[in-house]
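Quick one: structure tokens for this chain, please?
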Amino acid sequence: MRRSYRIGAALTALVLLALPTAAVACAPPDPIRDLDLPRYYRDAAKSVVDPAKLAENKAATKALRDYVRAVVAAADQAQLDPSEAQRVAGAGCALRHLDRWASGEALLGKMKTRQAEYERKWTVAALALAYLKVRTRAPRDLDSRIADWLGALSDRAYRNAAKPGRARNNHWYWVGLGEAAVALIDGNETRWSRAGAIFDDAMAETNEQGLLPQEVARARRGLVYHEFALMPLVAMVVLADAKGEDWRTRSDDRLRSLTLRTARGLRKPETFPSGWKQDASGPRGGWAGLATHVFRRDREVIRAVRRLKAKPAHRLLGGDASALLKALRLAGADG
């Protein structure tokens, strides 16, 4: 990767410096190579948060999450700003950030805890989705460098999650999203096949009631984790659409059942059939917008999802859902 950086750095620098002043002022932080993050649940079911450990985790991940938010915001600007100059500036800022971390081989060092592995896995999915929004503006050498880096991150996330004994739960699905997003970037069919197999695992796990037993086992946070599991799954269907494949046909309506069960539970947590009083923290952003594309011809699902009035964006989904659909040239519910 560093050899590729030396070869293409001069050309990339010239292209990036030619972008508008707003993009030139964008200052990427130094790459983070290693992560050491604490687990923040008190119980075996991972349903009770330890406030002190959670605060420690937030402090330890702040720089990384701020970096991801900066990339995502710039990528969304590149798609959604009404001004062409600002769209170009947003793309330039996102590319600067990605170039800095790709050339510095960020997150390819030691992941000292399982929580650190989780954070890397979420990060590669978020960055790959954000990069899909700005890739058309990247010089060829920069595109190759970013694709190689994201591929290396996704490979490590997959190898870690695929180890014997690792749970095939929501964490596995996020690995699948990272693999799918990076496969759209690097064209690696093995990676794409792995993403499809992970999606199939999720559909096999979903029962006839639209429930994921491994997430129900999270007790009072079962509903929260159903939503967290659903997020990468609807995103994977969107990416499959962009590749010309319909993954809805792989689910035998189980994705639909999972989406309805989750959306209705988020609106009325007391109706979620887990046997536990649920954490009613409200819906996360981003996935509802993607679901309106996935189920755009299904009025019942669209109605249930829209009633949530969820925010349009989420960091882990690469930002704004409409910006991703626009970049992939896909239509939403009204398209």
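DSSP finds 14 helices and two strands in the chain.
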